[in-house]
Amino acid sequence: MASSPTATSFAVLGLLGLQPWTAYDLVAQTRRSLHHFWPRSEAHLYAELKRLVERGHAHAEIVEGRRRQATRYTITPQGRAALEQWLATEPAPPAIEIEALLRVLFADHGSLEELRAALEATARQTSDLRIGALALSDELLATGGPFPQRLHLVERVGALYGEFLLLLEHWCEETLTELDTWPDTRDVGLTPQGRKRLEHLTDRVRRSQR
Prior knowledge:
By secondary structure, the protein is mainly α. Helices cover 62% and strands 8% of the residues. It has two domains: 81 residues, Arc Repressor Mutant, subunit A, CATH 1.10.10; 110 residues, no CATH class. Helix 1 crosses helix 3.
């Protein structure tokens, strides 16, 4: 009995809804698009393609590739109907998964130097992601990309992703500056700058609810 589809199932199905793909090309396309905000391993994606076939949502056929045979996947009418039904449902609540937040939250079990190294690494990683996103944005503006008719949708996703990277990079820099005022990771309490930021954030959230 085939497993129930997940959000990742429908993400892959959405790509198949654009055109047929070989497994290799579909994984490559996810690295250009979905991976920025919905990262999944290659093994997970290959397994998901097989599950889509088991559910009758995709059809697989062997085709001749450049060097060897490949499996090409095409969405079925049942798959397109399932995708349309999913799009009409309520999405799951937003979730944030950033390991640097865990490192900060439990930093009092480690040293100030370890925390600084973790934040510097996260800042560097975020900068690398931003550079990659910028290159993709430049390509889309210059050529329109492979699906120019969909750029009104791509722009909205890219806008949030880009703002998130800028925010995370700023947060890393701000937190590293805050560390300069801490004697240790333990028993510091709320600093004057921390109080100002918390009060400012609380005020902004309260005003947004009016």
